Automatic annotation (TrEMBL):
Keywords assigned by UniProt, alphabetized: Electron transport, Heme, Iron, Membrane, Metal-binding, Mitochondrion, Mitochondrion inner membrane, Respiratory chain, Transmembrane, Transmembrane helix, Transport
Cytochrome c domain residues: 88-258
Protein name: Cytochrome c1, heme protein, mitochondrial
Record's subcellular location: Mitochondrion inner membrane
Organism: Rotaria sordida
Length: 309
C-alpha cells in the first residue's frame, strides 16, 4: 500500500513539516497499476519470443540453402551445463592426432605442459616431449640445432612454413587444428561428420583431380582423403579403435585444445550460481522491505495561509 506525505511550509523560517499518512491510496488504484505492469511484462515476453523465433527461422533457412549435408547431432559428454570433458577420450584423441593427424596438421597453441593433469602425468608428458626434436638456437657459432623437447615447448608443426605445406599437399594448405572446433559452425558435430562422411560421389557427378567427395564439406569436394579406418591404431587403454571411435576421440581432443578451460569455467559457474542466487533473493527481499514505502509515496505541498486570512 502506498503512503501520502503532506508538507506545509512557513514563510518565516522556511521549514517544511512532513506528515506521513499511511494507507491513503485506494485498492483499485493498486490493482490498476498491477495489471498494467503485468501487461507490459507479457508484451515484452511476446516480443522477445517473436524476435528469437524469427532469428532461429532465418538461420535455419540459411543452412537449408547451403550446398552441404545437414550435420548429425551427437550426444557429446560435455553438452550439459554440469557435464565435463571425457578425459579418457581426450587422451585417446591425442593418440589419434599424433599417429594420424600430426603428419599434416599443426597444433600451434598447445604445449606439452598443457597435457599435464589432463591427459597425461608429468612424467608421461616429459617422455612425449623428449621423443620430438625441437629446433633451437642459435648456438655460439650462430647455427640452429635440434634438441629433445621439453614441457615448455609447443607441439612441433609438420612443415616449416605454409609454402612447404602447400607443396606437400597438392596446393592445399592443411589448417591448424588448435581452434578448429570454434572456427566452424557446430564445430564438434562438423568434425565428426566430416571425418566419417566420405563416400562415393553420386552418379554423374565428377570432381577435379586430387579431390575427394564428402557431402559434409562445403561444395562436396575436399582435398583431404579419408583418414580414419577401423583398427587403424591401437589405443593404449585397449579400447577398440573403430572408425567412429577414432573420430569421436579426436573430436573431443580438439574440443579440449580449443577450450582448455572448459571444465574450469563450468566449475566456476556452478560456484557463482550457488553464491549469487541466495544473494539475489536476499537483495530482492531487502529492496521490497526497505524501499517499497519510499518508492510508492506521494508528496503533496500546500500553500501556507496568510496571517490576515
Amino acid at each position: 500500500m502506498t503512503s501520502t506525505i503532506l508538507c506545509r511550509t512557513s514563510r518565516q523560517n522556511h521549514q517544511i513539516l512532513v506528515y506521513v499518512i499511511r494507507n491513503s491510496s485506494s485498492t483499485s488504484n493498486q490493482t490498476s497499476i498491477r495489471w498494467k505492469r503485468l501487461a507490459y511484462q507479457i508484451g515484452g515476453g511476446l516480443l522477445t519470443t517473436g524476435a528469437l523465433g524469427y532469428a532461429w527461422a532465418h538461420s535455419q533457412a540459411v543452412h537449408a540453402s547451403g550446398n552441404k549435408a545437414h550435420l548429425v547431432s551427437l550426444p557429446w559428454s560435455f553438452q550439459g551445463p554440469f557435464d565435463s570433458l571425457d578425459h579418457a577420450s581426450v587422451r585417446r584423441g591425442f593418440e589419434v592426432y599424433k599417429q594420424v593427424c600430426a603428419a599434416c596438421h599443426s597444433l600451434r597453441f598447445v604445449a606439452y605442459r598443457h597435457l599435464v593433469g589432463v591427459t597425461h602425468t608429468e612424467e608421461e608428458a616429459k617422455t612425449l616431449a623428449a621423443q620430438d626434436q625441437i629446433e633451437d638456437g642459435p648456438d655460439d657459432k650462430g647455427n640452429m640445432f635440434k634438441r629433445p623437447g621439453k614441457l615448455t615447448d609447443y607441439l612441433p608443426s609438420p612443415y616449416p612454413n605454409d609454402n612447404a605445406a602447400k607443396d606437400g599437399n597438392a596446393g592445399a594448405l592443411p589448417p591448424d587444428l588448435s581452434l578448429i572446433t570454434l572456427g566452424r559452425t557446430d564445430g564438434c558435430n562438423y568434425i565428426f561428420n566430416l571425418l566419417t562422411g566420405y563416400q562415393d560421389p553420386p552418379a554423374g557427378v565428377k570432381g577435379e583431380p586430387n579431390l575427394h567427395y564428402n557431402p559434409y564439406f562445403s561444395g562436396g569436394w575436399i582435398a583431404m582423403p579419408k583418414q580414419l579406418y577401423d583398427d587403424q591404431i591401437e589405443y593404449s587403454d585397449g579400447t577398440k579403435a573403430s572408425e567412429s571411435q577414432l573420430a569421436k576421440d579426436v573430436t573431443e581432443f580438439l574440443k579440449w585444445t580449443a577450450e582448455r578451460d572448459h571444465d574450469d569455467r563450468k566449475r566456476l559457474a556452478i560456484k557463482a550460481i550457488l553464491i549469487f542466487a541466495p544473494l539475489a533473493v536476499l537483495s530482492y527481499h531487502w529492496k521490497r522491505v526497505k524501499w517499497a514505502t519510499l518508492k510508492s509515496r506521494k508528496i503533496a505541498f500546500y500553500r501556507p495561509k496568510a496571517k490576515d486570512e
